[in-house]
Automatic annotation (TrEMBL):
Compartments (UniProt record): Cell membrane
Major localization listed first in the record, in broad terms: membrane
GO biological-process terms attached to the record: lipopolysaccharide biosynthetic process
Pfam families assigned to the protein according to its UniProt record, in alphabetical order: PMT_2
GO molecular function, one term: pentosyltransferase activity
Membrane disposition: Multi-pass membrane protein
GO cellular component terms attached to this protein's record: plasma membrane
Protein name per Swiss-Prot or TrEMBL: Glycosyltransferase RgtA/B/C/D-like domain-containing protein
Domain named Glycosyltransferase RgtA/B/C/D-like: residues: 38-196
Record keywords, A-Z: Cell membrane, Glycosyltransferase, Membrane, Transferase, Transmembrane, Transmembrane helix
Amino acid sequence: MLLTAYRAWIIIHHGLPLYVDEAQYWAWSRALDWGYYSKPPMVAWIIRLFSGAGNSELDVRLGTLLLHPLTAVLVYALGSRMFPVRTALFAAIMFLTLLLVGFNSLFMTTDAPLFFFWGLATLGLWRALASNAWHDWMLMGAAAGLGLLSKYSMAVFAPSVALVLCLPSFRQHWRNPRLYLAALLALIVFLPNLWWNVRMDFVSFRHTAEISQLDKGLFHPERLMEFTGGQFACMGPIAFAILLGGLATRATWGDPRRGFLAAMTLPFLAVIGMQALLAKANANWAAPAYFAGTLLVAERIAAERHARWRTAIVLSNLVLLSLFYHYHALAHAAGVRLTSKTDPYARLLGWPEAGAVVEAQLRRHPDALLAVTDRSEFALLNYYAHPGAQRMRIWNPRGDRQNHFHLMADMKNDLGANVVFATTHCPYDAAAASFERWTDIGHVDIPLYPDRRLQLCLYRGEHFKGYMR
C-alpha cells in the first residue's frame, strides 16, 4: 500500500503527462468496443472503469497502480500453497519491486491486465492440478480468456500448460476432460474479440504480424543479445541471474513445485527470445515470465539459505527505481542539463501546453473540426485539447489503415466541413487544395531541451471538397 501510494504521488507530484499509447488507450475508452486496431479491448475497459469520475492522468493510470499490487497478491497466494509463507511473502515483495513492474506502474499499459490475468490463470492451474475441482479449472479457463482480451501474447499460456503437463507429476491430466473444457471456456471468453476481428478483416492480427517484422530477414543474434540484456534490466541483474540458474538446473525440473514454476516461466522467455533472434522483440514482451519466475527465485534463495540476497534484490531494485522516479530532481541537483537523448521522460513533455494552445483556437473557431495528420497528434491532442470525440478527425488522403483512428475518424466523409488543422509537419500545405480556403492561423513553439522543441503549425481549412491528389 505504501509503495503504491508513493507511485501515485510520483505521478501527481511530477505531473507526468500521458505518453502517446496511453492517450490512444484513453481515446479508445471513450468508445467501448470488443476490439481496437492494435490491441484487444481490456486496457480501454480498465481505463473507462477507473476514469469514470475524472480524466486526469492519475485517473487514467489508476488501473495499473492497482493491478500490479493485486498481481503481487496472486504471487503470494500461489507461493503460500507451495512454500513457507515467508518465501511467498518475499516473492510478492520482490515482484512489486521488479524494475519492469516499477516502471510500468507509472504508465497504463497492456502489461498490467496481462500480468494480472496470467497470474490468476496460473494460480487456477496449480489449484486445478491439485484438486481437480471444476471451479479451479473454470477459473483457469476464464482467466486465460480474459488474458487474451488483454494482450494476444497470452496465447503463450497454452504451450506453458503443455510443458507443465509433460512433467511426470502431471502427465495424467492429458486425459482429463476438464482441461479441455477449461480451454473451451477460454476460447468462448475470447470469441467476441475474434468476431470483431472477423468484421474488421483481422486488422489486429495483421498489425501484430507486422510489428513482429518476420518478413524483414531472419537471424539477428545482436537483437537476441539486446533482448537478453533487457531481461537483466526488467527483473534486476541479481534476480535474473538466479532465475537463469534455476531454469538450467536438473533439480528444478525434477521437483513438482519448482518444475511447475519453471514450466510457467521458460516458454515465454523462449518464444520472445526466438522472436528477438528472428526479427525484433521489446524487453517487456516477456513480462509474464516473471510471475512464476519471482517465486522460483525466492524459493532458490530460501533453499540455499542465502538470506542476504533478499535484501540485496529488493534494495537494489528500489534504489534503481528511485533514481528513475526522481531523475529530474537528481539531474538538477547535480547540475546536469538534460537533452532529449538523456531524459527518459522526453517523449512525454510539451503536449499539455500544446493542447492548451490548440484548445484556445478551437474556441475561436467553434464551427470547425480538429484535423491532424498522424496517430500521435490525434491521441495527444484528443486528450489535451479536449475537442470531444465527435469533433476529431485524421487526415488520410491515401486511405491508409495503419492505426485505429484511420478506421474510425477518417475525414473523407466530412464534405463541406471547416477544420482547424494542427500538425507537427511544419510548414504543411499538402491539404490546402482540398479546401476552398486555407489560412495560416498560428504556430505553437514550446522549447523543451537545447536540442529539441515541440512545434505545431495551425491552419484553418474552409469547406472541405474531398481529398485532392
